[in-house]
């Protein structure tokens, strides 16, 4: 049953991601992206990362894409349409390379995942917290400072008055 | 799991669903009667004894209406949007513990799960407003998006204090940790969570997305029939969810003397729902800029302050 849910949500994630390329309306594309993100969150959950799944839904689907949609609604993109996917003239070679890469990936995954799939370890929120604020503390703080700098820069760029 | 277990799980889910829908219907009747009482009117009292069959009459009326989609609307999104709102509220109830062993699921990320679903709720309202393709609906949808994003932050931050005190995201363990209800230890967090909860459910005094006197009916202006009923149901389920969450997180859930746990839970939730109704009759609607100022300039700093105090005190008093 869990496998069934896993493969179902994988299929949904891939189809929704593909649909983004095909649909002509930007808002519809954003909606398919949300569906894809939600399906991915379910995959994370089934693979034993509940915290990651929750954050995926909360931050990506629940906050960032709401802002995306908000901008689309404010700018009223109703009259503008997604252009059909433009393919460069010699896309055959690229497609071949992508196919090769995919085959290599498939080969690698089939080697390693057979014995791992049976014993999925669920990593709870406490373990993630301990790891983030234990061995990875410096990286977390660096990321926080980077975000703060980005925030200050955004405030500077959007200020009113003299430039 | 075997087939019988799956069937049992499905049956209990169905039972809870039915119960929640029934409670939602009763709430819509109760609110109208109580509002009428507080405003010195009678309210709906014609259908059945004391008007108790009013919800049935309402549902029959809404179901028998034509399922109309305006020709200028975005058909697919217009149809999907009303389903999202009650769906997210219903899914959240899966992790709410009613009594010591009355819960459907005990996730170790239950609190985040509820917050994630409440952040998805905004899509229903926003897309409903956008897909209707009319100016009132669009304005309502935009307002709701801005409002819900602004109030999610203080809401989440107010809950971090609770998580610190109980040491878990699981709602069952949070209730179990409350020998003393967290409202005593986290008075500021309680107020912030309650106010942002009211804002999240778009109730008065924060119902800017559907402000009747300026936006017709806001995001649901173009909706009718069963689709409108979904939005309506979603609102009441949202109120019920916030009341249940405040009970679980701050008022000690099933804890209480003499009576069994379920009764205490129901009583506390009912009291909070009545508070919601009471606030609706007594407070005027905020202006839009006041709403944003309140969210970003008062609630967010207050939530951060609460977090700081809890963390510092916790460092000294809690070991391990």
UniProtKB/TrEMBL annotation, chain A:
Q: Where is the major localization of this protein?
A: membrane
Q: Which GO terms describe its cellular component?
A: plasma membrane
Its keywords, alphabetically, are: Cell membrane, Membrane, NAD, Quinone, Transmembrane, Transmembrane helix
- GO terms assigned for molecular function: NADH dehydrogenase (ubiquinone) activity; quinone binding
- Give me the reactions it catalyses: a quinone + NADH + 5 H(+)(in) = a quinol + NAD(+) + 4 H(+)(out)
* One matching Pfam family: Oxidored_q3
Q: Give its E.C. classification number.
A: 7.1.1.-
* Compartments, as annotated in UniProt: Cell membrane
The entry assigns this protein to a family as follows: Belongs to the complex I subunit 6 family.
The record's function comment reads: NDH-1 shuttles electrons from NADH, via FMN and iron-sulfur (Fe-S) centers, to quinones in the respiratory chain. Couples the redox reaction to proton translocation (for every two electrons transferred, four hydrogen ions are translocated across the cytoplasmic membrane), and thus conserves the redox energy in a proton gradient.
| Protein name per UniProt | NADH-quinone oxidoreductase subunit J
From TrEMBL, chain B:
MF terms from GO for this chain are: NADH dehydrogenase activity; oxidoreductase activity, acting on NAD(P)H, quinone or similar compound as acceptor; quinone binding
The cross-references to InterPro entries, in alphabetical order and at most eight, read: NADH_UbQ_OxRdtase_su1/FPO, NADH_UbQ_OxRdtase_su1_CS
- State which residue ranges cross the membrane: 6-26, 76-98, 110-131, 151-171, 180-199, 229-251, 258-278, 298-318
Assembly and binders: NDH-1 is composed of 14 different subunits. Subunits NuoA, H, J, K, L, M, N constitute the membrane sector of the complex.
Q: Give its localization.
A: Cell membrane; Membrane
* Name of the encoding gene: nuoH
Offer one example of a GO biological process linked to this entry: aerobic respiration
Taxonomic lineage of the native organism: Bacteria, Pseudomonadati, Pseudomonadota, Betaproteobacteria, Nitrosomonadales
**Superkingdom of the organism of origin:** Bacteria
Q: What does this protein do?
A: NDH-1 shuttles electrons from NADH, via FMN and iron-sulfur (Fe-S) centers, to quinones in the respiratory chain. The immediate electron acceptor for the enzyme in this species is believed to be ubiquinone. Couples the redox reaction to proton translocation (for every two electrons transferred, four hydrogen ions are translocated across the cytoplasmic membrane), and thus conserves the redox energy in a proton gradient. This subunit may bind ubiquinone.
Protein name according to UniProt: NADH-quinone oxidoreductase subunit H
Q: Which organism is it from?
A: Nitrosomonas communis
Q: Which Pfam families match?
A: NADHdh
Q: Name one GO cellular component term.
A: plasma membrane
């Amino acid at each position: 049953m869990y496998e069934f849910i896993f493969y179902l949500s994988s299929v949904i994630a891939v189809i929704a991601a593909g649909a983004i390329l095909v649909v002509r309306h930007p808002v519809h594309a954003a909606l398919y992206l949300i569906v894809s993100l939600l399906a991915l969150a379910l995959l994370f959950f089934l693979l034993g990362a509940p915290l990651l799944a929750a954050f995926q839904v909360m931050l990506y689907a629940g906050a960032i894409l709401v802002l995306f949609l908000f901008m689309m609604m404010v700018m009223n993109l109703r009259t503008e349409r997604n252009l059909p996917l433009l393919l460069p003239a010699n896309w055959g070679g690229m497609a071949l390379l992508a196919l090769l890469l995919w085959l290599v990936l498939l080969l690698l995954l089939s080697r390693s995942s057979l014995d791992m799939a049976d014993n999925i370890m669920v990593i709870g929120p406490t373990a993630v917290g301990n790891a983030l604020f234990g061995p990875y503390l410096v990286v977390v703080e660096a990321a926080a400072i980077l975000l703060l700098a980005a925030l200050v820069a955004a405030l500077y760029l959007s200020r009113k008055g003299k430039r | 799991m075997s087939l019988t277990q799956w069937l049992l799980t499905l049956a209990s889910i169905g039972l809870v669903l039915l119960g929640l829908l029934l409670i939602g219907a009763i709430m819509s009747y109760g609110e109208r009667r109580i509002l009428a009482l507080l405003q010195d009117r009678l309210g709906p009292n014609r259908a059945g004894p004391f008007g108790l069959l009013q919800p049935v009459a309402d549902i029959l009326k809404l179901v028998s209406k034509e399922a109309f989609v305006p020709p200028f609307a975005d058909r697919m999104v217009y149809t999907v949007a009303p389903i999202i709102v009650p769906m997210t509220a219903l899914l959240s109830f899966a992790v709410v513990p009613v009594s010591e062993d009355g819960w459907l699921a005990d996730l170790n990320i239950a609190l985040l799960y509820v917050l994630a679903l409440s952040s998805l709720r905004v899509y229903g309202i926003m897309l409903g407003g956008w897909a209707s393709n009319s100016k009132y609906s669009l304005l309502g949808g935009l307002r709701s998006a801005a409002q819900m994003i602004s109030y999610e932050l203080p809401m989440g931050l107010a809950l971090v204090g609770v998580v610190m005190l109980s040491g878990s995201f699981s709602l069952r363990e949070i209730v179990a940790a409350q020998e003393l209800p967290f409202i005593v230890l986290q008075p500021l967090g309680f107020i912030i969570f309650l106010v942002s909860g009211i804002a999240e459910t778009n109730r008065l005094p924060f119902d800017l997305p559907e402000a009747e006197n300026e936006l017709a009916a806001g995001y649901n202006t173009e909706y009718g029939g069963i689709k409108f009923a979904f939005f309506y149901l979603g609102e009441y389920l949202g109120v019920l969810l916030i009341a249940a969450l405040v009970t679980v997180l701050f008022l000690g859930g099933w804890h209480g003397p003499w009576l069994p746990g379920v009764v205490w839970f129901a009583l506390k939730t009912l009291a909070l729902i009545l508070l919601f109704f009471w606030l609706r009759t007594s407070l005027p609607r905020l202006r839009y800029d006041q709403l944003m100022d309140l969210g970003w300039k008062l609630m967010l700093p207050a939530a951060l302050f609460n977090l700081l105090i809890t963390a510092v005190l916790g460092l000294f008093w809690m070991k391990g």
